[in-house]
Each structure stands twice: as C-alpha cells, then as structure tokens.
Amino acid sequence: MKIGLLAMSGVRAHDKQLMAFGLTLPGFVERSKVIASLPSLGLLYLAAVTPDRHDVRYFEAEGDRSEPQEIYDCDLVAISTFSAQVFEAYAIADRLRSHGVKVAIGGLHATALPEEALGHADYVVAGEGEQTWPQVVRAAEGNVGQRIFRSKDFPPVDVARLPVPRFDLLGDRPYNRFTVQTTRGCPWRCEFCASTVMLSEKYRKRPIDQVIRDIQAILQVRPNAFIEFADDNTFVDKSWGKELCRALRPLRIKWFTETDVTVAQDTELLDLMHRAGCRQVLIGLESPGRGPLEGLEMHSNRKAFWNPQYVDAIHELQSHGITVNGCFILGLDGHDNSIFPEILDYSITHGLYDVQITTLTAFPGTPLYQRLLKSDRILEQGRWDLCTLFDVNYRPDPLTPEQLREGLYWLAERLYSAETTRLRRQGFHEQWRQVRPREQELLPSA
Ligand code: B12
C-alpha cells in the first residue's frame, strides 16, 4: 500500500486582537518561528514500525491548512493531531475518505476522545502508536471496517526497543530543529497537563546509547541540527541525566529540553549539561508566588513545595550558561489583576532569558477539564479549536474572562517588547558573566 503520514504544522490562536498585535511582537515571533517548523516525531516513529513492503511518505498540512494533492494517491493516511487543530484534521480526513482514501487518526486528542475521532476516520488509535500502528495497517490491508485500537489492549511499548524514527523521510524540508525523546511521560501529575503523560501512566527513561543513535541519525541528514528533546521532564533522575550528558558531549550538538526546577539542585549536573551543549531549559514555573500553585501537582503538591526554590534555581541554571525559558500560566485559581505586573517584574528582576505566558487551558482528558466542567466553568463546550494555550474558554476565578484576555494582551505587549527582552537577557548575561572568567572553556559559542 501507499501510506501517507500527515502532520499538522504551525502555531494556532483564534483571538483576533492577540493575533493582531500580541503574536506579532518580536519575542513571540522569534519563538514561534523556532517551534513552528518541528516535524512530527510521533509520525516518524509510526513510519519506522511500518512493515517494509509498504511505500511510506511524510506530508505536512499546507500553510492554508489544507492537505497536499499528492496525498490523494495514498491508500491509507495516518493523521496526527493535537486538540487545537483537530477540526482541521477532521475536515481533511472527511475529504480524503470521500475520495476513497482510508484514514487513521491518532495523537493526544484522539487518545482523550477516540469515539469523537471515529466520526471522521476508519481507524482511531488511543495511546502510543508503536504497537498498534502495524495492526492498523493490517486492518486497512484486509479492508476491516471502522475500529478503535487502544494501546492498553496491546503489550506496553518497551522504550528500550524503540526503532530509529524515520528522519530520512523528511527530505530537504527547511526544518531548523529536530526532536528526539530521551524519556516518555512524567512521574508528577499536574492537573492541567495534556502532554505524553496522557499516553501512558509510567515515566520511562530510554537507554542512553539509543538516544545517541537517534541523534546520530538526525546528524546524518542535517549535520548542524539543533536538537529539541520532546520530553515532558528530562532530568527527574539526576544520575541517569549525568550519564546522558556525558554521552552527548562528544556529539558537539546544541540542545533544548523541558524539565522541572529540581534540576538546579545538582551543580555537577548543570556543569555536565552545559558542557554537553544544553542551551536552554523550559521550566513550568506556572506562577511567581506559592498561593495559586497549591494543589496543582496532584501527587504531593510539588509545584507549591518547589516555589521557594525558583529564584535560586533560575540563577544557578543561568550562571552555568543555560538560559531559562520560564513558563507562566495566566488565570490559575487565585490569580487576580496583580498577576500581570507581577510576572513582568519577576521576569526582569530575575533575568529570565525567555518567558512563555499562556492562559490556563482545559484540554480534554485532563483532570482540570473534569473539574471545570463539573463546576460549569467551561464557556463553550467542545470548542477544541480554542485549546491553543492563548484563547480563553473558561471562567477564571476571581478574574473575568475579559480581564484575563486584557491582562494577556497587556503583559504580552510589555514582556516581549524589544526593551524588556533586552533587560531580561541582560539579567542572564550578568549571571553568566559572574562565573565565566573561571569557566572559559564553557563559553557558549551561540
Ligand atoms: C513538538 C511539539 C509541537 C510541534 C509539533 C510538531 C508536530 N507536527 O508533531 C509544534 C511546534 C508544531 C507544536 C505546535 C503546537 N502545539 Co505542541 N508540543 C510539542 C511537544 C513539545 C512534543 C510533542 C511530541 O513530539 N511528542 C512525542 C511524540 C512521540 O508523541 P506523539 O506525537 O503524541 O505521538 C505518539 C502517540 O500520540 C501516537 N500517535 C500520534 N499521532 C498518531 C497518529 C496515528 C494514526 C497513530 C496510529 C498514532 C499516533 O503514536 C506516537 C508514538 O507513540 C509537546 C509537549 C510535550 N512535552 O510532549 C507539545 C504539545 C503537544 N503541544 C501542544 C499545543 C497546545 C500546541 C499548539 C496548539 C500551540 C499553538 N497555540 O499553536 C500547536 C498546535 C498546532 C499544531 N500544528 O499542531 C500541547 C497539546 C495538548 C493537547 N492535548 O492538545 C502540548 C502537549 C504542550 C502543552 N503545553 O500542553 N507542538
């Protein structure tokens, strides 16, 4: 069979005012350009487990959100989608199916709402795809009718036996970053989180030699690739993290990852991370003060417990030459109008090199969604297209939706202005300069 893998690309937001000015600010544009061009790692894994007898091609939905014409030559198309662009994905699926192309849909949204997705697909996969996809392919070959495949009904995916994602399928598309996973999942459970924790309960670390093998495969197709670890939380296990960094160092790559604030407790790890090419860590700080963090991490209230470490952690990381991308969620319970100037001030005072502000978003399948639904706080049910992390689709407390929106504009305009960006980054350079003279060999080359 001819099999097409279709990724939805780009960044989304529906709020016109935000699009008109907020998202055009230099700091935001810079980050969206960086992230908008990532290929879909999930689909490249599916390609790698597709039986050899099939002809597999990778596609991306076009800039105008439609599918490329060549995809109509396929017998089966796998569409990977998050919530924000799921209606676009469904529309593409409907068009393909009306032309006789079989469609399979998977990814985080289909995992949360497989029955909904089955309204637009021949096959839906809930959960990880490595074990289920070959069965989907077999079902399509045998003309089996519509079906939901749930990964929990198959043997669990063994991350020690993952194949090399088929980076070679990407051709010469102009990606500036490539993703690799070193871990899957996260041992903590934040109420709002809709990442790979939804695919499997367990936190799993991959064998380090296989992570290196995958990066080498990327370097073969793009010798200067910047690597982004598509992990939820890389450095939970500090000794394993040190081994990972020791193995990464000879590759002389530069990389970015997402992790929690405890990474900063181990200065040996920070040294190794910098020497191994870590240029930025993204950390979910969520809120500058402790109050709104209470209860957010549901196992043992970790977010609130870690809050007093934030300032030292930012300083430790940045004085090791690793920039921090501090993420704040606007509209957590307890946030009032003072949260907007507080984040602005905090980001400048502590020299956050990059800052990400998003509005609290109730993704389907999350405990947050259940809680807000029960208390009648979702504004428009089923508006998955508003799950962009920028649009407001719930009643915050004590803010009104309008105040939250206005606050987001107010903060975005100031936080990402050229002047604030300069001030924030100056903070990083000062922290880094304090140690630089005795650490000459660690100087970041970019
Ligand atoms: C890389 C990334 C991107 C890339 C995506 C590239 C791509 N086309 O896949 C870019 C930068 C484009 C991106 C954009 C957005 N993203 Co993003 N992104 C991530 C990130 C960091 C990693 C995702 C990843 O690679 N996971 C690893 C792979 C292996 O897992 P996977 O894709 O889920 O695939 C597995 C299974 O789901 C399944 N599977 C997936 N698809 C299919 C299809 C079929 C047919 C089958 C059988 C199986 C299957 O099999 C795979 C292997 O097991 C996550 C955060 C995180 N740490 O996880 C956020 C995340 C996925 N993004 C998120 C969001 C909200 C967005 C945006 C909406 C932001 C915005 N305002 O625009 C946009 C969405 C628009 C879009 N085009 O998709 C949310 C999604 C939440 C949700 N449940 O919907 C996340 C979880 C971050 C968060 N803060 O919550 N993102």
Our estimate of the beta-strand percent is 15-25%
Question: What integer value in Å does the Rg equal?
Answer: 22 Å
**Based on helices, strands and strand pairing, what is the structural class?**
alpha/beta
Identify low-pLDDT runs: none
Number of strands: 14
Topology:
Blueprint: E1 2-7, H1 16-20, H2 26-36, H3 41-49, E2 55-60, E3 76-80, H4 86-98, E4 102-106, H5 108-112, H6 114-118, E5 123-126, H7 133-141, E6 147-150, E7 177-180, E8 183-184, E9 204-205, H8 208-221, E10 226-229, H9 238-248, E11 255-258, H10 267-275, E12 278-286, H11 302-306, H12 310-318, E13 323-330, H13 339-349, E14 354-359, H14 367-374, H15 401-415, H16 418-435
Parallel strand pairs: 1-2, 1-3, 3-4, 4-5, 5-6, 7-10, 10-11, 11-12, 12-13, 13-14
Antiparallel strand pairs: 8-9
The structure holds cobalamin.
Describe the structure.
- With 446 residues, the chain is an alpha/beta fold.
- It has 16 helices and 14 strands.
- The strands form 3 sheets. Strands 2-1-3-4-5-6 form a 6-stranded parallel β-sheet, with helices on both faces. A 6-stranded parallel β-sheet has the order 7-10-11-12-13-14, sandwiched between helices.
- Helix 7 (133-141) links the parallel strand 5 (123-126) and strand 6.
- The longest helix has 18 residues, at 418-435.
- It is globular.
- It starts with a strand and ends in an 11-residue tail after the last helix.
- The structure holds cobalamin.
- Cobalamin (B12) binds next to helix 2, helix 3, strand 3, strand 4 and helix 5.
